[in-house]
Amino acid sequence: MTGEAQVPACRVEIDRHTCMGSGNCSYWAPGVFDLDGDGVATVVGDVNEHIDEVRSAAENCPTAAITIIEAENRTI
Amino acid sequence: MTALDRDDIGTRLFSPEVADDPHATYDQLRTTCPVSRGTVAEMPMVFVFRHEDVVSALRQPELFSSAGGTIGLGEQPLIPVEVDPPQHTAYRRLLNPQFVPREIERLEGDVREMVTSLIDGFAAAGSCDFHLDFATPLPSGIFLALMGLPKADLPMFLKWRDDSIRPPVAPEDFEGAQRIRAETGRAISEYFRHAIDERRHQPDDTLLSRLVHAEIDGRPLSETELLGMAHLLLLGGLDTVTATLDCMIVFLAEHPDYRQRLIDDPASIPGAVEELLRCSTPVMVLPRAMAAATELGGVKLEEGDRVTLVLGAANGDEEIFGPSSVDFDRNPNRHVAFGAANHLCLGAHLARLELRVALEELHRRIPDYRLAEGAEVHFSTGIRQATHLPLTFEPK
Question: Å from B362 to nearest chain A CA?
C-alpha cells in the first residue's frame, strides 16, 4: 500500500456585483485580498496558506461577497 | 438591581449612569429581555441586545432599514448611513476608495506627527485635559486635512457636533433637543453649501472637492447628496474617535496592569485597540426601522416598528465572548463596535490607525498617566464621550 496524502484545496469566489470595495478583506487577510483597478476585491495570494484569515475575511465581508468553495479532499 | 419595567428600558439605557458604567445594565437586559418592546421619548421602540440578533438584523438591510430619518439629524438624509441598498452601495463605492486599508496606511506619518505634536504640547506640564488636549484635536485635525477645510473653523464644527449629538438640554427635553438639532442641521447645510460651491469653481485633491466633482451612475452628485455626505463625514470625523480615545484612556488609567502590558509590549496594541473597542463600545446603539414584518429572537416585528440595536450589549454577549474579561489577545475578535454588514463603519481603518498610533506614542512618552486626584469623569449617552478628562503624569 502506498502513502496517501489529503491535500485540502479551498478556493474563493468574489461576487463583483455585490462587492462594494470596502477593502475589509484586505484587513482581515492581508496579502490574500486586494482591490483591483475597479475598486473591487480580488484574490492576490494563496487562499489555502491563510485559510483562517480568509474565513475571517469572508465572515466579516460587509456585503457577503466572498464565498469559500470548500475543499474536496483530493487523494494524491 | 431590580427587575425592569419594560417601559423603563429606554429611559434606563439612555441614562447618564448607564453611559458612565453600562455593563451591568447591558448584561441584565440581554439576559432577561433579549428582544424587547419599550419606549424612547414616549415613542414605541424594539430593543435588541444579543450579538446573534444584532448581527442578524444588520445583515438584513432589506428588512431592517436605515432609511426614513432613522437618525434624523440633518436637513437631508445622512449619506450613506440613512440610505438602503442598492443606492447605499453606489454611495459606498464612491466613498470607500478614500478609506480602504491601503490608502489609510499612507496617512500613518501624518497621524504620528500630529500625535507627537499634541503630546509635545503637554508633556512638560505633567498634566493635561486628555479630552480637550488630545482626544478632540487628533481626529479633528486629520478630518479637516482630509476634507480640505480650514483649521480656523474647528471650534464652530465642534459646537455643531455637540449640538447635534448631545444638545445642551435636560435629558427629558426631547422637543428642545430636536429644535437645537434642526437649527444645527440648517447651519451645517449653509456652511457646506458655500464650501461645495467654492470647490466647484476651485477644485483641489481633498475629499470634499473629489466628491463635488465625482459621478454616480454617470451623473454628478446633487447638492442634497453632497450635503448629506458632508454632514455625515463631519459627525463621524469629529466625534467617534474622540469618544473612543476617552473611553480607552479611562479604562487604561484605572487598570494599570493592562496599561503595563501596552508599555512592555507595544506589539499588543492592535489587539488592545480591538478589545477596548469591544469593551467600551463608544457608539452604544444603532437605529433601524422595519421595512416589512419579520421575527427576531422569537419576537414578532411589524412593518414600521422602530428598532434600537444595542451594540454595547451585543459586545458583552457571553455566548460569543465568554465570561466578561478584557483580553488583548482575543482572536478573532467578533465585536460589533463598528457595526457590521453593509453599513460597517466607513472610517474604521482610519479610526484603527489613529487609535493605534495614539496608544503607541502615549505609552512611550507619558506611560505613568493617571486620573487627576479627585477627578470625576462622566460620559455622554448615545456616543460615550467625556467632557473633561484630567490626567497627571511625570513631567517629561
Answer: 25
